Amino acid sequence: MSHDFLQMHLKAVISCLLIFLYKVHTTKAGQFFSSGHTNNWAVLVCTSRFWFNYRHVANTLSVYRSVKRLGIPDSHIVLMLADDMACNYRNPKPATVFSHKNMELNVYGDDVEVDYRGYEVTVENFLRVLTGRLPPSTPRSKRLLSDDRSNILIYLTGHGGNGFLKFQDSEEISNMELADAFEQMWQKRRYNELLFIIDTCQGASMYERFYSPNLMALASSQVGEDSLSHQPDLAIGVHLMDKYTFYLLEFLEEVHPASQANMNDLFKVCPQSQCVSTPGHRTDLFQRDPGSVLITDFFGSVRKVEITKDTINLTSPVEPPIQRSGSGDIQIESLTYVDQLPVAEIIHQKPKQKDWHPPDGFILGLWTLILLVFFQTYGIKHLKHIF
Amino acid sequence: MIQETHSDTIVASPVYTRYIYIKKKKRLVASHFCRLPLSVVELFKVGESFTAAARDQFQEELVIRPLHSGDIYASFQFRTLWDTDFLQERQKVSHYRLFPKSLGQVLSKFSVRELHISFTQGFWRTMQWGQPFIPSPPGAELWVWFHDTVSDVDGNWKELTNVLSGIFCASLNFIDLTNTVQPSASFKPLGLGNATDHRFLRYATLPREIVCTENLTPWKKLLPCGSKAGLSVLLKSEKLFHSSFHSQAVHIRPVCQDEQCTSKAWELRQTLNVVFDLYTSGQGKKEWSLFKMFSRTLTEACPLATSSKVYVDITDNPELFELSPATPLLSQAVVLGDRRTYSVFDLTRAEMFGQLRSLNLLLRWKGDSDMLRPLLHAERYVAGFGLQTGEIHTVIYNNHPYRAFPVLLMDSVPWYLQLYIHTLTVTSKSRDNKPSYIHYQPAKDRHRPHLLEMLIQLPPHSMTEVTVQFERALLKWTEYTPDPNHGFYVGSSVVSALVPSMVAMNTNFTQDQPLFSSFVPVKEESSYFVRVYTEPLLVNLPTPDFSMPYNVICLTCTVVAVGYGSFYNLLTRTFQVDEPSLPLAKRLANLIRRIRGVPLLA
């Protein structure tokens, strides 16, 4: 009897629990806790130098533009551009970088902050940014200050090959180095989930070697295939964008902060009919189902907001005390500006010697001593052999 | 934290928040820097309650000067004056209003007495355009005077360059000891002070530095009104960078607070000089307007500014060009040794903007006139051929008909151009001209550049040439940039001089002087201080073939494989007789033959 009662009780409890869990999963509170991240970061890198690689800078700036539009602030974006295309002397329209939406979209814009530019974009700096091992005097805007609840988006573009990506025509990063850097990030708990997108030739080779958890990767082409560029522009004279990023930008322009588009839609961007190369992706290291991952989990910075109807008392603003510098000592003598070119003073200026030199006459005295000792030892008669 | 608000008012708080809201577009934008909220009316209210506590004031000014080649020169100056002491030990400054917090923190942390940083794209053509109000060399230039309490100047300098590279989004972290010099007589402080011990001065240039919108964006964010109100609405990057010359600078120095000059105040000046070309921006027509230059017109003055004025230089024959809208306000100022007349547009007066609430100045030329030749001009070039030796020539012109004056020439040459200082010659009018002061600090390979400073007396109406021979060094292969065939840059020479003035300069310091004439302190009436920068040089260093390591590895591996491989085979290969296996038919035949007892097949 008691056994039956217990069983019934147990069943009731279990069913209640199941109903509760189901409710949690589908209600807003459930969605509140499903993604697990609290902040978003983005590291966008363009690795190519020279004017004819204009399209790589345009690629990176398109992703920068989308990411900013969807809410990630400049302080959370590390933008690395290996060369300056906007103010390049060969650019017929200075301070602009166009993507190929009929030449209407200036992805450079008026409000852009590039953190690493020109010669600073090196493999070493990129790996230091990822792993956080930067010299202590590095400013905050150049650091990736992510924690274990950050979702990071990493976008790389440039010229690549099977297993490597070329930086600035002088060095490469290999897929093993990249995988090890991500493992370091995982061990230091520098990310919650990481989305890696690469738009280069044979891009899929770069994510083959990943072995850390919570990584999802997308590439614009498989091993053995080349990523192609979109049409050239006759006024500017170079190709403006790569095909994969062009269709990616088109897709992202439709996304807004409240959209429910998920990763499966992102995998369908640019099929082989449009891109000529076959985009690839890798989700085996990722723990959640890609269909449940929103695009804005990585590309945007959508915050969960709790709206309250209660009133909150803010304290009245504190008046700072009036600061009077050196009020005790009254300066009676007036201060003057320095003379900009005091000719007389300069002419009579004695050059400051920082290196120590022996006092004057020391060398002369030393030689006299040496000669004296020599002639004392060997006698004065040797003098006639000298003269 | 970012919060979405659906109301139209902006949350204004006296404590600075890190993120700002754009009211109209309901977009969320964040910035590095602590900035004031944007609502203009709220801004004014907040400002009023704090005038008692923080005594700071802001002035903005735009000077438009038509040039003789048909180009037009526009110079913006934004000045914030603040009576405070950043360097006091007892109490840290924590309440910022108009002065940007990022710069204030930099000043107190590194004990900076004066800071001058400029970013320039293009070269100022003195002979065609005259003298600029505030000169700057191409690329980035940074010079800093530290306070005497600093014990490790080099350490502070290195950290300061890193912090500034983050603030201005420029690669200033490439400034290190290999391109920093310590001038011994040039670059005296432009602010108040007595002692000038040059051990606390550091100067560096990066001639290769590119200036683009990413440098303009943080520069605009330092202004109290941002780029939303006042003169800064004209600063649109698409027009500013499509020009012959663009220079933006930040100058911080202590100045006199009032006419008696008993106490110090900190002055922050942000200047932006731009020259628009007649043909690229002007479409060949000698007709300029604010809309044509900046693609914007002025709508209001910055509410935080105590004065907001536009000056247009109409000295050169007022009949020759027409200015509209006409204004009765005229002002005369003595600047750069010349008395110039300006039409003044005071933007704090609402009637300036008319019914359309916008001010668009229009200048139309009717004829040509002659330009006054600038009195001091300098050029520099590299002579010689080949990749081993060369010669640097610096030519300084004195165009004054009868007066001679001294100039201080400062040259900073990187270590990889090894100067032969015994070949230094200074000639004026084909005769030797011995400098009255020479300071030379030789370079140390990979540690320190050459520094040469000379005080030369220029005879009237003459050309002085300074030549020195050099040899190019071979760098280690890791020291080359990714594009070494472009060449290596040598920074501009700096020529500082007190040029005799034709008009008496004003030595009194008054509060209502226009900003462009009060930048350099004037000590005597008969001369004015001017600084001229020469062109930077581009020299080719002998470049190795960077594919050689790859070639060597391939060749070595091939030789080893072929040579050692065959030798190894010779030593270890043994020959064994191999019985070939018979095909199936023959095997069956052999089986039958064995049964029959007949000899087998081979």
Automatic annotation (TrEMBL), chain A:
- The record's active-site residues are 159, 201
> Which Gene3D superfamilies did the record assign?
3.40.50.1460
Keyword Cell cycle annotated? no
Q: Where is the signal peptide?
A: 1-29
Record bears the keyword Signal: yes
> Which keywords, in A-to-Z order, does the entry hold?
GPI-anchor biosynthesis, Membrane, Signal, Transmembrane, Transmembrane helix
- InterPro entries, sorted: GPI_transamidase, Peptidase_C13
Against PANTHER family, the record matches this protein to:
GPI-ANCHOR TRANSAMIDASE (PTHR48067)
State whether it acts alone or in a complex, and with which partners, per the record.
Heteropentamer. Part of the GPI-anchor transamidase complex, consisting of PIGK, PIGT, PIGS, PIGU and GAA1. Interacts with GPAA1. Interacts with PIGT; this interaction, via a disulfide link, stabilizes the expression of GAA1 and PIGK and links them to PIGS.
Q: What is this protein called?
A: GPI-anchor transamidase
UniProtKB/TrEMBL annotation, chain B:
InterPro entries with a match to the protein in the record:
PIG-T
Instruction: Please give the biological process terms from Gene Ontology that the record holds.
Output: attachment of GPI anchor to protein
What's in the GO CC field? GPI-anchor transamidase complex
Domain of life according to the entry: Eukaryota
Q: Name one Pfam family in it.
A: Gpi16
Q: What is this protein called?
A: GPI transamidase component PIG-T-like
Species this chain originates from: Sinocyclocheilus rhinocerous
Gene symbol?
LOC107724198
